[in-house]
Design a protein that fits this description.
The chain has ten helices and nine strands. The protein is an alpha/beta fold. The strands form two sheets. A seven-stranded mixed β-sheet has the order 5-6-4-3-7-8-9.
Amino acid sequence: MSTEAASRRGVPDATVARLPGYLRALTALADDGVVSVSSEELSALAGVGPAKLRKDLSHLGSYGVRGVGYDVTMLAAEITEVLGLARDWPVAIIGMGNLGRALAAYRGFATRGFKVVAVLDHDERLVGLRAAGLVVQAMADLPALVREQGLAIGVIATPPESAQDVADQLVAAGVRSILNFAPVVLSVPGGVDVRKVDLGTELQILAFLAQQRTVPTTRTAEVS
């Protein structure tokens, strides 16, 4: 089950967005041999307030034990199940530029329930070359990947002018979940889930926040 599917089964979208952070914190605790954790400790590790964490987990039916807290292994398994990560999701990355190659080499996918089964590009000069241990395939191979490997998620790492065409090809091949790194809004039919990762926008927000921090100091200096 994807995060979108989790929200459709009654877990609020805002809660779904925070579940990966809880799972990451729980996984780190389990690796350190921690058996149980309080809501205060877990919320601090996940960067949210204790009340918000308890409310989020109540949507999963987890309330913890007073004086003991949450069982780390059980809660991690429950969140894993809700997010649909109890199985490996086959992923294809489209666009073998610098970003696409970096994503293909990212080892974090495998530890979070995702398996990159293919890398593709529409540039014939790149087809047949290798990227992160995989042979770059042509876009024409998409339908076969869906049929034969159960390709479930397409990651678009192309320039913006190519992204919509790639999205159309993914949808036509039967892919219903898309992660888009291209700085463009995609048009997809109903029943197709798109998540957008806009690095430029995030940097612009950070620039705004950084500027806001300097404004009081600048104004004080001008007054003095």
